[in-house]
Known about the structure:
This protein is α+β, with helices and mostly antiparallel strands and 196 residues long. It has a single domain, classed as Muramoyl-pentapeptide Carboxypeptidase, domain 2 (2-Layer Sandwich), CATH 3.30.1380. It is built from seven helices and seven strands. The strands form two sheets. A five-stranded mixed beta sheet has the order 2-4-5-7-6. Strands 1-3 form a two-stranded antiparallel ribbon. A hairpin with a 2-residue loop joins strand 6 and strand 7 (188-194).
Amino acid sequence: MLSICQLFENNQKSNFDYLVDLKNYPFILDYSEVKMFSSQPTIELNKKAADSLLSAQKNIRDYKFIITWGYRGYKEQYHIFHFMKAKLKKSYPNNWEEKLDIYTGGQSFLDYIKNTPKSKQSCMSHASGNAVDITGIINNKNQQLNLGGQKNNERDAIDYYKSGQIYNNRKLLMESLISIGFRNHPKEWWHWGYCQ
Length: 196
């Protein structure tokens, strides 16, 4: 299994333009996670990625994406790293370092983000400004589609379900994003990188 750092280092580099605040786009923004780790809760993306994400949403008429993260720089990643470290030390006292590497990429990934400019980051990294977490889809009746939640287990792979409602909803998300140039993180159905 590739580490987070290997996944991002072996991926296509980002095509960086400039960051835009997604509050100016017709997405549904969920700031709950951002507020936990940032003193300035905004959800930003590289302009090219944001415009492409809007095209993907328009391709599935009458639906809106729920977005929880976009650009995440070193400061936010640092706070996430230390939050997870404290949490995992309590939950997994014998192997917390291994779990920390799995969930955050560990210290090496934190150093990678700190020392690598946005334009050199992988398109799959939040630090590039091209990665986005889409944690839901709302239909025109203001109902959220069931995408299976976020559990950090094998069911989080976009193609884990082979039939049923979660399968259909993930397929809708996947087809709308892949057709525009986004790629999915293999273990997180919600994590997408704009790789054009």
